[in-house]
Predict the 3D structure of the following.
Amino acid sequence: MTLSVDIRRQLGNFHLDVRLEAGAEPLALLGASGCGKSVTLQCIAGILRPDEGHIELDGQTLFDSASGVNLPPQRRNVGYLFQQYALFPNMTVRQNIAVAIRDRQARRRTAEELLLRFRLADAADKRPRQLSGGQQQRTALARILASQPKAILLDEPFSALDSYLKYQLELELQDMLRGFPGPVIWVSHDRGEVWRNCPRVCVIARGRSEPVVPMEQLFRDPGTEPAARLSGCKNYVSVLPDGETVRIPDWNIRLHCGRTVPEDVKTAGIRSHHVEIAAGAGENCFACSVDRVIDDVFGAIVLLRPDGAVPGAPLLRMELSKEAWAAQGGPARLSVRIAPEHLLLLR
Amino acid sequence: MDWYPLYNSLRIAAISTVAVFFLGLFFAYYIAKLPSLLKGALDVVLTLPLVLPPTVVGWLLLLLLGPKHPFGAWLWSVFGVRLVMTWWSAVFATVAVSFPLMYRTSRGAFESFDSTLSDAGKTLGLSNSYIFWRIQLPCCRQGILAGMVLAFARALGEYGATSMVAGYTPGRTATISTTVYQLWRTNDDAGALRWVLVNIFISAVFLLAVNLLESGKNGARKGGAAV
């Protein structure tokens, strides 16, 4: 069962251009806020109409601008988990679930089954505003499954929650999605959340989607700066490709990449925890002065100025454990190394 | 004492409230969705009867319905129906002046309705009419009820336009307000006072109802904020 999306939509100055395909495993839709993630979900669900393109789910065309097909949301069989869950405030938990059951004859029995399965039997007669965050999420999911969707869209499911509740709800959501056979699209701006839950990822930056890649590739070789940013990389510096090396004019150094650098690479990304402290001189080692040390919750953040840095050049951010930094004894100067395989080459 | 004016006033107000309920909801629902420029223009037109003098509204109604004007004359010649100077003629006047109250309060309620609730309903397969009657309306019921009470009270107190389109015929088109005027004009102060007291009593009951609805709304808001 697959969901394939290829749509464009113009809204003022904002241009949405999304192409993606989701199979049986959850697909992460990763992007900064305002990049068009929610608009994409609304187009798939039929709440918004794309200007042109094609949406297909399990062999059925949901939208096709060429042939004029545009199924209403009611006939798309796409479940949508809204950010604030959108439970009907005038109905009890039981009613919220029961209204979504299409088969009238089985309505009562199916509702009771779902209440038990989602551990909501005790809360069945409560109104949504009387529920805890976890119960609200379970009610919303039970209601979606009650409508027997072919695909499920999750719109930043944990955006408004504190971290402990978020962790608990994430475990529950994992359990409940495990038995779902259809495509799941999980919208998020949190790299950890998608890494833990989705084997594949599609990055959206300023309305444009990048090709779907395995999650591991996003972190090993993100390919573009927006993707690298979303994967959590914090150091960026302009580079000039030169064979298997790159020149970094800002820092006046040359680094080996261990592979031929494509001509269109403009930027190198370096993850803070991939900056190693070097014993002395060697390949990809260079000397820096310590600009500033920031004490973080579980580690230390050290901002380094390479010796060859021109005025206005970016500082290099290094992260390491508190113990590892304490062992250095607070030096003013430091030699660091970046392994060739840890240099992210970005177009 | 002849209670006909009370009975007539109440049935006119009741019929016009039912009419205004559907008219107000219809316009509020569709206008709340319009782009702001068009919304502003239609808003002015639909709210005008609220701020115009009732005699102006009455004159405009006579222009539309009167037997000497094209539409009224056509109805009279084809169906033999006369739209003015009957007891139900007053319904036209009360609908015109009380419609804006219902329309404005329910439009405000619809605009503050969380549209993701209806989006959620659609993705769950619920029909648009089910979403409107069973989700949107119950969520907006405070504002809609307040609008209905205001529209009823306004219809009950209507004088100017009513006296122009329905006139004053004792036992046929007399309402409380036209009766008070007639009794005062004929120097029957004692009679006028009786109807004034009846009117004050009914109006007080309705204002009380409005206040109860308002406090219910505040209570619901406080409850919502506490969660």
Q: What stands out?
A: The mean pLDDT of chain B is 89.
